[in-house]
Design a protein that fits this description.
The chain has 13 helices and 12 strands. The protein has 396 residues and is of the alpha/beta class. The chain is globular and about 60 Å long. It is 43% helix and 18% strand. A 4-stranded parallel beta sheet has the order 5-4-6-7, with helices on both faces. A 3-stranded antiparallel beta sheet has the order 1-12-11. It binds nicotinamide-adenine-dinucleotide and glycine. Nicotinamide-adenine-dinucleotide binds next to helix 2, helix 4, helix 5, strand 9 and helix 6.
């Protein structure tokens, strides 16, 4: 078995001047990728200032904003006004909400719409929504006339801390998640914390799973901070939320800058995702299980499996389980119906993009704050673990 160890990201102590109590200032995080570098602007009024913030990136004062019905209804007018103020001609393309949009038909409809608007490669497409809109729009931008530029305006916690940053774009197929896509970086990311105040609690928790991921994979102190402040982060629009978004973006920007195309270290960002993607495929993509919920359960599975293999202490897996329970996050026992057939879950895991030569690659843990990539994981031990989970939890 080959290991790619996580030797960097040493936990830096989180401020003693408590970031839940000091006033939140706007922050800017640079994603350093040479000619593809860009800034993530995090603030509590970036939506209102979006016209002014994106104008320097536009080749022409004409944009297409791709969004979903929920986001349009809640925040569309603020964005429209921001563009009007700066005399930017904005065409809104409003899609239904939900994971099922990450598919060939919606992709084709968006591309047709852009062609009908006579958009060209110099025009800019804006992804205004959660990770679904971001992934779909980014992929559309990557193939529209061989690539037009795009900007991310993420409106869910998950999208602000993860999916809008780093340039992974994709749609799903019946074979699994994110199997058709491209690495395609945005020109800028504008994250407005204030839009999180309209996000349903279930969606906030789904996003929180990806926040927790950064602590679990490389920053034990951040995990500890989240154990104390997770409830404040989940308030949606708080200083703690802004701090968590900013720190998550810094961690992600650092990892992506080191390994943009995931030849090694970036795979750590997939902690919990191989288990999670299998659960999502098993659930179908109809909203029964959110991506972040699958990641939450998947991260616990990665820790439990690591503990079962003697790679990490049982106590660490238990500590994570306790935090997930306290935060009422998704754990395997909350979704027993998805564990009825361990062989099927194992076969879903076989579709993961990280796998090589038919063998599973997993992100496992040595401890909280120290994840690593393990190649050539034995399918038999995974099946044994999945069977044990399946037998322990009740299927009603
Ligand atoms: P989502 O885009 O489906 O949004 C969740 C729900 O929240 C939707 O119903 C949406 O309409 C609604 N919503 C969005 N903003 C809102 C707001 N401010 N107020 C109220 N409602 C709002 O889901 P998501 O969790 O943001 O993203 C999940 C997707 O992201 C998955 O497809 C996953 O694969 C992908 N993802 C991609 C990456 C990447 O690196 N590209 C990383 C993580 C996840
Ligand atoms: N969300 C995992 C990555 O961007 O690599």
């Amino acid at each position: 078995m080959t290991h790619i160890h996580n030797t960097q990201d040493r936990p830096q102590k989180h401020p003693t001047e408590h970031p839940t109590e000091t006033p939140f200032k706007h922050s800017k995080v640079r994603v350093d990728l040479g000619p593809r570098s860009y800034d993530i602007i995090i603030g509590d009024d970036t939506l209102r200032r979006a016209g002014m913030l994106i104008k320097p990136h536009l080749n022409a004062p004409r944009i297409a904003v791709i969004t979903d019905e929920n986001v349009m209804a809640l925040h569309g007018q603020t964005l429209k006004k921001a563009f009007e103020t700066e005399q930017i001609e904005a065409h809104f393309i409003v899609r239904p909400e939900g994971e099922s949009q990450k598919n060939f038909t919606p992709l084709q409809e968006i591309l047709d719409h852009l062609l009908a608007l006579s958009f060209d490669r110099k025009d800019t497409v804006i992804a205004f929504g959660g990770g679904v809109i971001g992934d779909l729009t980014g992929f559309a931008a990557s193939i529209f006339k061989r690539g037009c530029q795009f900007i991310q305006i993420p409106t869910t916690l998950l999208a602000q801390v993860d999916s809008s940053v780093g340039g992974k774009t994709a749609i799903n197929t019946r074979h699994g998640k994110n199997l058709i896509g491209a690495f395609y970086q945005p020109k800028a990311v504008l994250a407005d914390i204030s839009v999180l105040s309209t996000l349903p609690e279930r969606e906030l928790k789904a996003g929180y799973a990806e926040v927790l991921k950064y602590g679990l994979l490389g920053d034990a102190d951040f995990f500890e901070w989240l154990e104390d402040n997770g409830d404040k982060v989940l308030k949606g629009k708080s200083v703690a939320t802004a701090y968590a978004v900013s720190l998550s973006c810094q961690t992600k920007a650092r990892i992506v800058a080191e390994d943009e195309f995931e030849n090694g270290r970036r795979a750590l960002l997939n902690l919990g995702h191989t288990f999670g993607h299998a659960l999502e495929l098993e659930a179908g993509y109809g909203g029964d299980l959110l991506h972040g919920e699958a990641v939450s359960a998947g991260m616990l599975m990665a820790f439990e499996y690591s503990a079962a293999q003697g790679l990490c202490a049982e106590a660490d897996a238990k500590r994570l389980a306790q935090h997930l329970t306290k935060m009422k996050m998704c754990r395997p026992q909350d979704i027993p119906h998805l564990f009825k057939n361990p062989e099927t879950l194992l076969s879903h895991m076989g579709q993961d993009k990280k796998n090589e030569g038919g063998a599973l690659t997993l992100i496992l843990a040595k401890s909280i704050g120290n994840a690593f990539v393990q190649k050539a994981v034995s399918s038999a031990t995974i099946l044994e673990y999945l069977t044990q989970v399946s037998m322990t939890i009740r299927h009603d």
